[in-house]
Amino acid sequence: MIKQSKWVRAHTNIAFIKYWGKENEELILPKNNSLSLTLDAFYTDTQVSFDEDLNKDILFIDGEEQDEKALNKAQVILDLVREEADIHDFARIDSKNHVPTAAGLASSASGLAALAGAASLAAGLDLSKEELSRLARRGSGSASRSIYGGFAEWEKGTSDSNSVAIPIDKADWDIGMLFIIVDDGKKDVSSTEGMRRVVETSPYYEGWISSATEDLAAIKSAIKKQDIVEVGEIAERSALKMHALNLSANPPFNYWSPESIVAMRKVEEFRNQGYSVYLTMDAGPNVKLIGKASQMDELYQALLETFRKEQLVIAKPGPGIQILED
Ligand code: ADP
Ligand code: DP6
């Protein structure tokens, strides 16, 4: 017998206040609360089938069977679902990433959120958004936030049961992003490894924690006021502090390429021209602009002087997790 889900879609999210460090590695409990915007441009569609004829779990992304490491991440979610639903069959996961995988464009966020949705659906579990967020979190921390559209905050909590994301704001105002993809290849230092290294070795980590708490409170009030300048300034600072931690780790590492710096300088130039535009970066060399959605077309045109059009993607706030009806 096969228990097959419909296709489930989850969008990526980009953190404005970064999650960069775990308190508990196994349960994926973070050191600080984080806050993100879910985007329409990048997403994952996933279908799960529990099948009594399978003799192992298999994960296909874009038709390619994935290695042990990616499978193990997915199996954390499969095992939790199997336990809850008392299912003993192996599963086949079919997934389509409309986002480059492992390139700092948050494929793990959309990928593991879509998997949480599809696996629980295939198992016949009727989970609330909060339960889905907790389940997605066990696969990849940032996935907890991709359950919701607009702005979401992942509350770090103190245990498996209360470390969960909640919706903060629909982001139905003039805010948008523009991605400058300088490289969509796989990164050398995964997020999991990078954050582990800074927690263990950066002498600045305590400073990160205290300033993240302040940044979070400030950005929530700026979001309420729909103040793009304050939101952008705080998000840019949070990202740069995260990258400063990486430089201060032992051994030090960074995700920047020469083209990242070119893109970062562009953002500064735009600001000098009067645009309210800011940058954020994750565990990869790509630079993401935050600004007024209504100005993104103009910035896109200006960036065409420096980058190819395939490198530029405009993104608007996106929706939460959804089941695709056939
Ligand atoms: P990214 O910046 O893309 O999030 P990470 O290295 O943090 O990069 O995460 C990439 C990992 O997330 C992949 O190696 C894989 O384990 C997992 N992943 C990505 N997409 C999917 C998917 N669609 N289904 C299941 N797992 C996925
Ligand atoms: C830089 O969620 O990919 O994107 O929990 O180890 O799977 P794991 O890490 P992951 O880390 C995301 C880090 C970040 C910042 C963020 O999204 O908050």
TrEMBL record:
Q: What class of enzyme is it?
A: lyase
Residue span(s) of domain Mvd1 C-terminal: 178-311
Identify the GO cellular component terms for this protein.
cytosol
Q: Where does the signal sequence lie?
A: none
**Coiled-coil residue spans:** none
Give the E.C. number(s).
4.1.1.33
What residue stretches are annotated with the Diphosphomevalonate decarboxylase-like N-terminal domain?
Answer: 10-165
GO molecular function list: ATP binding; diphosphomevalonate decarboxylase activity
Which keywords fit this entry according to its UniProt record?
ATP-binding, Lipid biosynthesis, Lipid metabolism, Lyase, Nucleotide-binding
Q: Which GO terms describe its biological process?
A: isopentenyl diphosphate biosynthetic process, mevalonate pathway
**Which InterPro entries does its entry note?**
GHMP_kinase_C_sf (IPR036554), Mev_decarb (IPR005935), Mev_diP_decarb (IPR029765), MVD-like_N (IPR053859), Mvd1_C (IPR041431), Ribosomal_Su5_D2-typ_SF (IPR020568), Ribsml_uS5_D2-typ_fold_subgr (IPR014721)
The text of the family note is: Belongs to the diphosphomevalonate decarboxylase family.
State the protein's name: diphosphomevalonate decarboxylase
